[in-house]
């Protein structure tokens, strides 16, 4: 470690600091407020698969990393138990799988916007009824919006425990990939959260 520190100091200490602030694109408040994006696009895939993807562009969420509101929503949308969207669609024989979420990096989350997507893997019968499938998804999201967050905090705490277990028992990753991930985290999180900010939930704030 001492040797590595010496190398880094020698190589990088001569780079001048030009004093410029970190670029911000926060003034672009509506990056997708364009008629072309408010449409349904049909894409013919190479392999035989039917998939419906619904995408929303939201205000930037990276400042809420300690709360992770999109994790909360994706957990509810992706739930597969009784009363879930997927359970309903499976009973109709319209869908095989459903996923909702945000990767929290790059194109999907940055200082300008955050993307939230719901993807449904359709059956042949589901493809014939994809308008109804989309309607069901929007109905479910509307219901979540009207009900608001769980006031007893039970759902959020369950997600928090799951994420904590995954963090504590994760498999060892390639050191180079891990260092690259930490360097990215240093640009996004407070110092005390460099190691955990991209994985753990810290605070419950229903208003967020």
Summarize this structure briefly.
The chain has 208 residues and is of the alpha+beta class. It is built from seven helices and three strands; from the N terminus they run H-E-H-H-E-E-H-H-H-H.
Rg over alpha carbons: 21 Å
The level-1 CATH class: Alpha Beta
Coarse shape: globular
Distance between the termini: 41 Å
H/E element string? Answer: HEHHEEHHHH
Largest sheet: 3 strands, antiparallel
The total of beta strands comes to 3
Can you identify the CATH superfamily? Metalloenzyme, LuxS/M16 peptidase-like
Pfam families: Peptidase_M16_C, Peptidase_M16_M
Family: Belongs to the peptidase M16 family.
Protein name: NRDC protein
Domain Peptidase M16 middle/third: 167-207
Characterization of this structure:
This is NRDC protein. One of its GO terms (molecular function) is metallopeptidase activity. Belongs to the peptidase M16 family. By secondary structure, this protein is of the alpha+beta class. It has one domain (29-188): Metalloenzyme, LuxS/M16 peptidase-like (Cytochrome Bc1 Complex, Chain A, domain 1), CATH 3.30.830.10. The protein has helices at 2-12, 69-77, 85-91, 124-128, 130-147, 154-168, 175-188, and strands spanning 50-58, 95-101, 114-122. Strands 1-3-2 form a three-stranded antiparallel beta sheet.
């Amino acid at each position: 470690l001492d040797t590595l520190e010496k190398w880094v100091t020698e190589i990088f200490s001569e780079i001048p600091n030009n004093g410029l602030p970190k670029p911000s694109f926060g003034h672009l408040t509506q990056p997708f407020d364009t008629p072309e994006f408010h449409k349904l696009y049909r894409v013919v895939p190479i392999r035989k698969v039917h998939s419906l993807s619904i995408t929303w562009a939201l205000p930037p969420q990276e400042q809420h990393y300690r709360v992770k509101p999109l994790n909360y929503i994706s957990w509810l949308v992706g739930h597969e138990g009784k009363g879930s969207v997927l359970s309903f669609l499976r009973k109709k024989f319209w869908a095989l799988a459903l996923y909702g979420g945000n990767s929290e990096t790059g194109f999907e989350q940055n200082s300008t916007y955050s993307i939230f997507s719901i993807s449904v893997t359709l059956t042949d019968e589901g493809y014939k009824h994809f308008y109804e499938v989309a309607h069901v998804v929007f109905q479910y999201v509307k219901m979540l919006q009207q009900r608001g967050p769980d006031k007893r905090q039970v759902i959020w705490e369950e997600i928090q425990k799951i994420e904590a277990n995954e963090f504590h028992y994760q498999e060892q990753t390639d050191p180079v990939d891990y260092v690259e991930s930490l360097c990215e985290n240093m640009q996004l999180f407070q110092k005390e959260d460099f190691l955990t900010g991209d994985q753990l939930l810290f605070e419950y704030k229903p208003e967020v």
